[in-house]
Amino acid sequence: QVRLVESGGDLVEPGGSLTLSCTGSEDLSQFAAMAWFRQAPRGRRERVAVRTNEGGTKYLDSVRGRFTISGDSAKNTVYLQMNGLQPDDTAVYYCNTYNVQLNWGQGTQVTVSS
Prior knowledge:
This protein has no helices and 10 strands. It has strands spanning 4-7, 11-12, 18-24, 33-39, 45-52, 57-59, 67-72, 77-82, 91-97, 108-112. A hairpin with a 4-residue loop joins β7 (67-72) and β8 (77-82). The protein is globular.
């Protein structure tokens, strides 16, 4: 099965920016759509952004206009550009297919705090 490795998480101040990367062990374009998810402390995992192979995107209401999902098929990588980060964005971020077909990776921690 395709393995996913997330990276790019960090501690940032409110208003800051980060770019997360998710690299697959195989071609991710074999899947109809990839997504980023997050799980806050004591929270449920939620899907925050989806990108189809055709380039269509969809976002969680709370991140729309601040987050951008993109992909580079040549690198088997999906990105999440996050701007205007807020404390409520603090979570472990994961990628997967939009319908969670793959095993979860280890995730990458994003902490937004002053």
